From TrEMBL:
Gene3D superfamilies: FAD/NAD(P)-binding domain, Glucose Oxidase, domain 3. PROSITE patterns: GMC_OXRED_1 (PS00623), GMC_OXRED_2 (PS00624). Keywords: FAD, Flavoprotein. Residues 109-132, 286-300 form the Glucose-methanol-choline oxidoreductase N-terminal domain. GO terms for molecular function: flavin adenine dinucleotide binding; oxidoreductase activity, acting on CH-OH group of donors. FAD binds at residues 249, 525-526. This is Glucose-methanol-choline oxidoreductase N-terminal domain-containing protein. Belongs to the GMC oxidoreductase family. The lineage of its organism: Eukaryota, Metazoa, Ecdysozoa, Arthropoda, Hexapoda. PANTHER family: GH23626P-RELATED, GLUCOSE-METHANOL-CHOLINE GMC OXIDOREDUCTASE.
Amino acid sequence: MAEGVVKFIKEGTKHHNSEPPDEKNILPEYDFIVVGAGSSGCALANRLSQISKWKVLLIEAGRPENYIMDIPMVASYLQFSEANWNYKTEPSEYVCLSMNNKQCSYPRGKAVGGSSAINYMIATRGSKKSYDYWEELGNPGWGYHDILPYFLEIEDMTIPELARDTKYHSTGGELEISRVPYQTDLAKAFVESGKEIGYQEVDYNGRHQIGFSLLQSTTKNGTRWSASKAFLHPIRYRRNFHLKKRSLVTKILIDPVEKKACGVEFVKNKKTYRVRASKEIIVSGGAINSPQLLMLSGIGPKKHLEEVGIPVVQDLNVGYNLMDHPGVVSISFLVNQSVGLIVDEIMDDGKSLPEYFNYHTGKLSVPAACEAIAFFDTENHDSMDSDPDLELLFFGGNIGIDLTFYKMLNLQDRVNEILYKPIANRHAWTAVPLTLKPKSRGRIVLKSKNPFDKPLIYHNLYEDPYDLEMQLKGVKKAIELSKTKAFQKYDSTLSNILVPGCEGFEFGSDDYWRCVIRHMSIAIWHLTGTCKMGPRSDPGAVVDARLKVYGIKRLRVADASIMPMVPNAHTNIPSMIVGLKAADMIIQEWVTKKNNS
């Protein structure tokens, strides 16, 4: 059955009629060109095109969205489709040891909507201190006081008890935030287990983050609500806005004398096009594609660009400072009742499919079996006002809930046969720990000067021992929760199948879990930092606090790559906020220029 679902997704071609069409007659020149229709790019293009006299072109390398991508439960399967860039990290001797060729998967959205079209729809903002820290690093205007209004501007909160908190929530914005229509009893047990060990049930997007909660999700009426649906579908008839799909921007055109960005070059159907920008170019390709494009255009580390044969236009530390929230996937707990989620059962039960397609409710409305979340401050156990450094992401199943999920993680067949085949049809739950304040840093580099060669991703997860030890704390926290009355009601039992490669350690010992973490960790796909925002005095900075690329006129970067430190959040909504703030700064500057001329 699972293989049939994958085929169904790959062959699904019915696109949303409300998505802006692929513009066939693009103009030779626009006021603004935005590269990348992801979470940030969609929000940015929406706001810039509100100025009716400005002509805005949004260029996306990927495909249109289709209706199959709307079904929350199939999110994992989307990674087998052409909507995924299908990146892999470079082989490591330290982490991803159970993956094929010791490479972790790095799914990235290659579609209108970007990664918001294939992600798990988890709606988190991050803490106040995350953004205040950005400002402390020398980025005025990026503190929480400045950022909160943008969260409120776009939000349409449909969870009644949360919507009443008008200081932290709002209604009427483009991005619907809702509670998933279906929750397993295990998800409810997870929240109850948190209360048993002394934590409260919280609104983690409100005043306090520390505590447990059922998931807040970017879904509407049980369907995915991507950045494209939120920001592009409503503007499909704007005459000053054009969207170009399946078009890969290969180079930013820069006047070498004035060092001014003046246009872009892109390829569609093997044909090369050039289009000019009279005001600005804004790169919103994400933490892999944005640094790749800058380096292909001659903006990057001088030594590296010279090594691959690219003339240097501006020497900047592009591609450095790569961050993510690592997580380990193999901490699964078996239960003695049919209270979890197993994909084949859902597809074969005769009621879940019609329930979803008729009412958008039921088990298929759960985002890839992800149902709940918890945040901890491991240094300040008793304070709700503290800053989370650890997250547990709750899934109402394990990797064995379907026969293809492990392939999405690039897990070796041999490891899957040993670890998950024996429990493939068992009801279970999994808590994935996330290190929220990683100290390790990776790097994106070019494989060559060919824009069609995927860049090389050196993630360097756990290069700093702190990050691994935080994962160990997360594993222990999950085990502690499993022993609560809430979970023992289902005879919750830790799966004791030894992870291949870790047989030499005593099961359950700290060294065993450290070995498991190195073998079974995955990147959680919150890539940030590779075009770092910072003051001119910061040698690692690529853009300033107004997101302008140092040394190049009329060029900005606006996406997760500018984040100087990854927030303690899933990065979809924070990336939208970057796009909104960028638009405000651009509008402010160009309207001021006009008024002063």
